[in-house]
Structure of diguanylate cyclase:
Amino acid sequence: MPDSMRRFARHSFLFITSCIITIFLFSWLSMWAIHEVPGIGTVVFPTMTIFLLVFHAIIAGFMLMKYICEKHRLYLMPIACAFAGSALLMLGTLSSYPQWYLCNAGRLINYNDAIIFYFFRNIMMAVLFVIAVVLYHFRKHDMHVRSIHAWILTAIGIFMASMILLSWLYSSKHPLLNVHFIDNLTYTFTPLWRGMTGWFLIALWCITLIILLTVSRLRNIFWYSGGFFCVCYIVTLWVLLSSDHSAGYTWYQARFFETLTTLFLIFVLLCDVFNLYRRSHDKYLDSYQNSIRDPLTRLYNRRYFYDTLTQQLSRTTLAHPLSVIVSDLDRFKRINDQYGHLQGDKVIQFVSRVLQNAVREEDVAARVGGEEFALLLTNTSATEAYNVAERIRQAICQQDPKRSDGQLPEPITISMGVFTATEHDLSAEACVQRADQAMYAAKEAGRNRVVVWQ
């Protein structure tokens, strides 16, 4: 079996297991909640509808913002339109409950209109989910131009508007267009709903689920949540079909289950937003580190060294001295000429590790030139800085090809100059220049030594 098939099989098993557990918990919670509030049935359903409306509007906003940020994810727009259209159709559902907030108008409720809006809402959402999956399948094709996006979004908008218009016309608004899913006198579901219509919606969501699983292969949590949403709507329809009339608990249980499902989907979207933020933050940190570090040695670069030195000098006093060490490898050009630049890079990297290991976390080790390095030591006197530089010099000159695991083709030496600032009125350039002068004095004195600027 190919790796892709095994991965899809694992994802499918995880998806099915998660759906079974979550649906069981949601069903138990919805049954418990509905039975705990049996006396306010006239207000429960429209209240949950308002929550559902707000949740769907939030999801639509999420999808729209993600599409605006990433225009190549066109498949998000059908989902955004599905939830936006669903929110609009739930306004029609609320209109079927006149004066519901007074808790005394149960006999005026038009249950048939409410389920008509529900019927068209299911068709619209299922079809738009299929369109989203199809667009996801073709996401890498040459279709991400403004004109194609405009045509697709226009077609989606026309379809959504037609569903909303048809639901409004069929819901007692047009004398020639009417359908009876519920008898408003007896609150009984008609054979039309319990027969062909209800099973048609279940079949539509099952087809949507199969297409979603086949195309998306459950590659990420977004499609996991989409598949879970389809499963939950299938379960919701099954709950409705299990009852003979709308006055029973199943009417409220189905809406409560749908509300919990949507709330869960919002939680998944928030997790997706958090992961997106985390990835963006990590990329920012990586980008920032790359901008302040030398690519070969991963020591800080020249700009960061001077910026930090300028900041530290403003806080320098006699009690808090600041030391700068400038160092240069002796006769490094001969190593490049004799052994090649790749070997020269290994020498640079070896010396960089020695420097990095010799300083504290609050200090700065930087590569400021080809074979030139600089150290910034906070709260360090001239004597202490000299001792640090001397330890580094000895650690480098005592190495040979065998001790360095082949990093050094031959023993090398380093010359180092030290300057310690005790006043804040010096510039960064002046500090480095004085340390540089001390380093050149070490070169002139025979190399492989440390000189403190006097």
About this structure: Confidence is low (pLDDT under 50) at residues 101-106. The longest strand covers residues 322-329. The chain has two domains: 3-288, 302-452. The radius of gyration is 36 Å.
